[in-house]
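Take a careful look at the protein record below. Let me know whether the structure tokens fit the sequence:
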Amino acid sequence: MADQPLEPGALLERRAVRLDESAGDRSAAIRRCGEVLVEIGAVTDEYVAAMLQREQSVSTYVGEGVAIPHGTLASKEAVRRDALAVLRFPDGVDWDGMPVTVCVAIAARGDGHVELLAALAQILLDPDQARALREAGEIDDVLRLLAPVREESST
């Protein structure tokens, strides 16, 4: 079942986009990202701990107010299906001295996260697109901005 190709758009579902989150610190933000991935059935609870463990070894902050939390290589078994979750923290979260307002959480089996990270990087390296993602007020705005990632991974 996990090896079946995803339908277009299934990688980022509307219900995985949360635009009004709050977190007291980086760990709470990562935990919230993991909880959303659990809620949509993409990962088991064990993946949340792996996301926190990943952050302890390497920061997932990528610049432009964005972090991309994901699990460790050892956590692949906790991934039921490839998925993204996008959480916006309007008040910001201190990410080891850097302000983060958007987290794009990744759950991927195998090497799927490498392609997802590359596709996300193309969007996030463009300051205008990164700003649009940080300022997105509607779920449809987020889905439109991340359409290249959704299409890249569903092919």
